[in-house]
Structure formats: structure tokens, C-alpha cells
Amino acid sequence: MGVARVHTRVTSEHGPVDIPVGATGTIVIDLAQASANWRALARHVAPAACGAVVKADAYGMGAARIIPALVAAGCRHFFVATPQEASAARELAPNSVIYVLDGLIPGTARDLMSIGAIPVLASLREIREWATYTSNHVNLPPAAVHIDTGLNRLGISEKEVAELSRDADLLARLNTSLIMSHLACADEAGHPMNREQLDKFNRLRAKLPFAPASIAASDGMMLSSEYHLDLVRPGYALFGGQATPGRMTPVRPVLRVSARILQVRDVAPGHFIGYSASYGARKRLRVATVAAGYADGLFRHASATNEDPGGLVSIRGRHAPIVGRVSMDLITVDVTHIDDPAPIPGDWVDLVGPDLAIETVGAGAKTIGYEVLTRWRPRFHRAYLEQGD
Ligand SMILES: *Cc1c(COP(=O)(O)O)cnc(C)c1O
User: Fold this and answer.
1) Does the pLDDT at position 14 exceed 90?
2) Is the pTM of this model over 0.90?
3) Does one domain contain both 22 and 89?
4) Which residues span the domain enclosing 111?
5) Catalytic residue at 236?
6) Which of 211, 190, 218 has the alpha carbon at shortest distance from 358?
7) Ligand 1 centre from 188 Cα, in Å?
């Protein structure tokens, strides 16, 4: 935009960040906290190793900044979803192990090998294609094998594990660096499927030549140390996500999203707020119009009607409900109860922040914190806090 002037605003205990004067919204990502989260998770699972899942541009937090920060923190195992993500990760983490969770996309074996990325082979077809491609190499490049234990999404079935275990020729052409599976219900600590999947995984992997094993993501790693095996694969928790309700993961939020109040107005009883007149004032309301909408990443499902409460924002630590429809660029917020002092145009409100967890924001839009992390769009000014900022 060519706005040269900046003003400074304190956004976290780690310090201030410079914001262009015309910015209506900010996305502030605390790299120091992401590193601290990884270290806390690594301590929690030791002696198991702790990797980092950085698919989808590090859950929208920016792989280009997150990956180097995690490398500096000591992380050596990264998981991405796609070959493109793997090649970006390779540039950022030249000496790390990089796994590709989507498996072997047909025809990509050569590219993966050339960047030293490891496919998480998820079907016998993929295993055969990889073995065919790699078997003429003197040093077999490593591969991971994904076993399905009940999610029915990716991975070889029990029957296919048996078939693979009998195929000595195929096994001899496979250099397995990791055997993994994925849990369906680990966000419910008491769900019987957790134990069933762990038992099935341990039983099936015993049929294959020994390799390090991994089953736990952010939620599974909080179940018990039995789920840590050799390597855990958190993604959400790195960014402060609390994946298992009722089990406090030892991490803190990384993301703060804020936007400015443009106007504050009184709405008299009987008058409506926003598109489709879906919210009527039942008493006199003070309503702040905030420069944030679904084009920035807010959920339109956070719209409130008189019958159905929507989402919340936070103003200096006080929650304030969204009233009426979330529109493309704007939301309207009931600030009637905030009078110490009353919000004025130019003030900032948090859409996600220290007083408004991603899980709370997700619940306000009938979704989960994961979707809250991954959806912020480029219109808001993005800034990173680093160690010592
Ligand atoms: C995304 C993903 C993870 C990370 O999950 P979180 O819940 O974000 O920790 C781990 N393993 C697999 C297979 C995944 O797809």
C-alpha cells in the first residue's frame, strides 16, 4: 500500500509489533511461543521424539517462519501433506526428515527422492510404485508405511498388512523408517476406540520388519505415554491448540487476530442490525461496527439471530457478542455492557487472542479451533513476534 508511517502497539507479553497506520486488522503470530510449545511437548513425550506437523502452510501460521523457528528449537522431523509442501519445507529445513502424509501421488517418486522427502505410503499400490522406482538405487531411500486401524481414510488394511508381510521380495525393496497410524477419537480421552486402535496398531506392525512407530497427534499424545511410541506428530498443539477437552496440553496460544472499531452507534428497541434484519434490538443497544468480515476469515456461521447466539469478540478482556450477520468486510458487536471506558472508533478488538481461545471462536461458529487457525486471509496485516521482541 506504500504507507510508510507505522505506529506501534503492544500485542503480547513478548513485546510490541509495528503496524501500518492504515491497517484495519492484524494477524500477530508469536514465533517464540510456537518454539516454546514445541519444547514443552518434546519434554512431555521424552524419551519419545517429537516431530512437527506443518501441513497447510503450518496451519495457516506461515511455514516460511514457523519451520525455521522449530528447527532452531531442535525439531528434526517434519510432516507435510503434499509434495509441494515438502519441497518448500526442504528449503527451510535442509537437514531435517520430511514426511509427506498424502502418500505417493502417482509419478512423484522421482521428485520426492530428489528433495529427500519421505512418502507415507498408504496403499499397496503406493508401496509397489515406490519399490519399483527405488529398487535400482544402491542405497534404498527411506519410506514410511501407513496402517489403517479404524479411521478408514488412508493406510493399508489388516489384510494388506498380511499380504505385505508374506511378500519377502517387496519387503526387501522397502527401507521403512517409520510405521504409523492415526487415531479417530483421541480428542475423547475415554473413547474405547483409542485403546482398540493402539492395540491393533501394535499387533499389525509386529507382522512387519521392525521400524520406529508413531500413532499420536496433538490429542493422542495427551492420552498416556503408551501412545507416544517412538515419535509423536503434533500440529494443532504447536500453535496453542487444546485438542483434548479436559486434558490441559502444556502449550499457550500463538495467534492473535485483531481488528479496529470503525463506528459505535446506539440502536433503539425494535430496530434491526445487519443484513436480512436477522437480529432485532430488544432494548437500547450500543453497537460497535468492526472492520472484519468473512473475506478476512471470520465465519458467516458466527452470525447471531435473536434465537441463536453467534460468535464473540474480546475488548480489553471483556467478551462481546456478534449481533446480526457477519458480512464481507464488517461485523456488528454488542458493547452495551462495556463502559469502563466505552469503546470508541479506532479501538482494537480481538477476534482471536489471549482472552478468546481458538476453541471458543470455533464453538461460536459451530466448528473447531483447527478451522479458526487455518483460514486467515491476506487483507489483515500479518506480523511475527520473535524471541526477544
Ligand atoms: C494433520 C495430522 C496430524 C496432526 O494432527 P493435529 O491434531 O493437528 O496434531 C498428525 N497425523 C496425521 C496423519 C495428520 O493428518
Assistant:
1) no
2) yes
3) no
4) 31-239
5) no
6) 218
7) 15
Which SS3 state, helix, strand or coil, does residue 247 take?
A: coil
DSSP state of 120: E
Q: Is the pLDDT of residue 196 over 60?
A: yes
The one-letter amino acid at 87: S
Does residue 293 belong to any structural domain of this protein? yes
| pLDDT value of residue 388 | 53
**Rounded to the nearest 10 degrees, how much is the dihedral formed by the CA atoms of 12, 17, 20, 22?**
10
Counts of helices then strands in the chain (DSSP H, E): 11, 21
How many percent of the chain have pLDDT more than 90?
Answer: 90
CA of 69 to the centre of ligand 1 (A): 19
Mutational test site, ligand 1, from 101, 146, 222, 227, max ligand atoms within 8 Å of CB = 101
Which of 182, 211, 239 lies at the terminal end of a domain, its last residue? 239
Is 55 tagged catalytic?
yes
Is pLDDT of 389 > 50? no
Atom index in ligand 1 nearest the CA of residue 236 equals: 8
Mean pLDDT for 83-105 is 98
**Is 215 touching ligand 1 by the criterion CB < 6 Å?**
no
Q: Is residue 314 part of a domain?
A: yes
- Among residues 59, 275, 279, 370, the one annotated as catalytic is 275
What Cα–Cα distance (Å) separates residue 347 from each residue in 25, 164, 182, 241, 243? 11, 62, 44, 27, 32
Are the C-beta atoms of residues 17 and 28 closer than 8 Å to each other? yes
Beta carbons within 8 Å of 389's beta carbon, 6+ residues apart: 14, 15, 16, 17, 32
Number of structural domains the chain divides into = 2
* Other residues' Cβ atoms within 10 Å of the Cβ of residue 248: 9
pLDDT at 9: 56
